[in-house]
Design a protein that fits this description.
With 179 residues, this protein is mostly helical. The chain has helices spanning 3-16, 22-45, 52-63, 72-87, 96-116, 125-134, 137-142, 145-178.
């Protein structure tokens, strides 16, 4: 590509592939270990075993949304929606064929809403990530959906709190630099 658009795409690609110097990367990695360990310890004490559901929110929030606090609500709501839609396929007491049909209709409606940009706080990429993961047969048939919901809520609160603190520190630093 040429022109301004090509330059912007090149900048995005370079930014996406930016690396840290080795020592700084090691320090960041240690922080990540401490942060995730804190989440796992709290989950353990709360008897939450489906922690993977919360970790997907973290991976999505930091990997796709760049760790932006303002992305947390749509990521969280999208994750809830995707999980809820997937659960239709394994609804207790519902005839499996009917559950499959209702689930398929719900997925098609969700895809349509995503394509036209309807209710992006719900129908977004976090929705599709959770829908996809929960529809993996072993997850769908063996999952503890209450535990997954608890892990998702814990993750949203714990890592959202972390992002809030980071944002507050950034704002404080910016206000002292401009003064």
């Amino acid at each position: 590509m040429t022109g301004e658009r090509g330059s912007l795409m090149t900048e995005k690609i370079e930014k996406a592939h930016a690396t840290l110097p080795p020592l700084r990367a090691l320090i960041v990695l240690m922080g990540v270990v401490v942060l995730i360990s804190g989440y796992m310890v709290i989950a353990h004490f709360l008897d939450i075993h489906s922690t993977f559901a919360g970790m997907f929110l973290v991976f999505y929030l930091f990997g796709v949304e760049g760790g932006e606090l303002q992305a947390l609500p749509k990521s969280f709501i999208g994750a809830l929606g995707g999980m809820a839609t997937a659960i239709i396929f394994a609804w207790p007491g519902l005839d499996p064929d009917l559950a499959g049909l209702l689930g398929l209709v719900a997925v098609l409606v969700a895809i349509y809403c995503l394509l036209i940009g309807f209710a992006p706080i719900l129908f977004n990429h976090a929705f599709m990530l959770y829908l996809t993961v929960v529809l993996i047969p072993v997850v769908l048939l063996e999952a503890d959906f209450t535990g997954m919901l608890a892990a998702l809520v814990l993750s949203g609160v714990y890592f959202g709190g972390f992002l809030w603190v980071v944002q507050a520190l950034k704002n404080r630093k910016m206000s002292t630099e401009s003064a």
